[in-house]
Each structure stands twice: as C-alpha cells, then as structure tokens.
C-alpha cells in the first residue's frame, strides 16, 4: 500500500471514529440524564466512556493500518482495511451501548431503591419504643394463658 492510500485509510478511519464517538456522547448523555435527572453526572459518565471508546478504537485502527492486507493494487487494500475497520467500529459501538445501558439500569434500580426507602420512612410512623424494648418483646404471639418470651409448645404428633 502506497503512502497516499495509507494516509487516506487513516484519515477516513479517524474521521469515522470521531463521528461515531460524538454520536455516542450526545446520545449517551441524554440517555443517562433521563435516568438520573442529574445532567452533570450523566455527561461526565458518558464523557469517560466515550474517551475509552476513542482510545480503544483508535488503537485498533493504528494496529490495523500496520497489518499486511491482501490486495494487489492500493484501492482493494484500502477498501478491505476500511471494511475490517468498520466491523471493529461496529463491535466497539455495540459494546459501548451495552455499557451505557448497564449504567442506566443501575441508576434506575438505585433510584427505585432510594424512592422506596424514602416512602417507607414517610409512611411508617416512628415507633416511640426504644430498640432494646422492641428486641425484648416476644417474637411470636404467645398462646392465651401462657406468658413470656418462649411459650410452651405441645409435643410433635410424631412423638405421640
């Protein structure tokens, strides 16, 4: 592959990686922002993921540019390398989207858990008794006529 074809391959590859990274960044920022409601947190997490995406895919592009590729003339070699580069880019895009989906899922679960805890504390009235008093009370309700924490139990039917 001659120098012009090599430079063309790298230019098209870098351009496609940057465009795809920007698409992931802007879409992912809104995606995580809607789950959490905090625009700053969604943007910063998405920025970290997109930086990792750029580093991995640009590294794969650099490695792919040095690998010998079959093709007699320069045009088939460039087209073949671009095809492999697009497949790598698609794989990296899918992995990045799965990471974003997992992060959103974790945010939604955390939000539901926090809302549930807040609703629990709001709905349940505070118990005026101390924790020690609650622990000393019987775990089960005793049978009428039997007092105490561990009431007497009738023998098992198998023993009789």
List the helices and strands and how they pair.
Layout: H1 3-36, H2 39-66, H3 74-123, H4 131-136
Helix pairs in contact: 1-2, 1-3, 2-3
Region (Disordered): 119-160
Organism: Amycolatopsis cynarae
Protein name: Integral membrane protein
Q: Mind describing the biggest β-sheet?
A: none
Helix % is over 70%
Using only C-alpha atoms, the radius of gyration works out to 31 Å
Number of strands: 0
The overall pLDDT, averaged over residues, is: 77
In total, how many domains does the architecture comprise? 1
Pick out the low-confidence regions.
none
- Overall geometry comes to elongated
Helix-strand makeup class: mainly alpha
Give the quaternary arrangement of the chains: single chain
Tally of alpha and pi helices: 4
Beta-strand percent range: under 5%
**SSE pattern, N- to C-terminal:** HHHH
Distance between the termini: 93 Å
Protein name: Integral membrane protein
Organism: Amycolatopsis cynarae
Region (Disordered): 119-160
Transmembrane segments: 6-27, 48-70, 82-101
């Amino acid at each position: 592959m001659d120098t012009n074809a090599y430079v063309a391959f790298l230019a098209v590859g870098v351009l496609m990686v940057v465009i795809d990274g920007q698409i992931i960044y802007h879409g992912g920022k809104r995606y995580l922002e809607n789950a959490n409601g905090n625009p700053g947190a969604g943007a910063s997490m998405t920025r970290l993921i997109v930086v990792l995406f750029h580093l991995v895919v640009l590294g794969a592009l650099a490695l792919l540019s040095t690998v010998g590729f079959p093709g007699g003339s320069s045009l088939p070699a460039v087209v073949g390398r671009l095809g492999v580069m697009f497949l790598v880019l698609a794989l990296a895009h899918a992995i990045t989207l799965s990471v974003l989906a997992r992060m959103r899922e974790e945010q939604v679960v955390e939000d539901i858990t926090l809302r549930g805890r807040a609703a629990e504390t709001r709905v349940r009235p505070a118990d005026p008794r101390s924790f020690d008093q609650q622990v000393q009370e019987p775990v089960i309700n005793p049978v009428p006529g039997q007092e105490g924490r561990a009431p007497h139990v009738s023998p098992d039917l198998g023993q009789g």
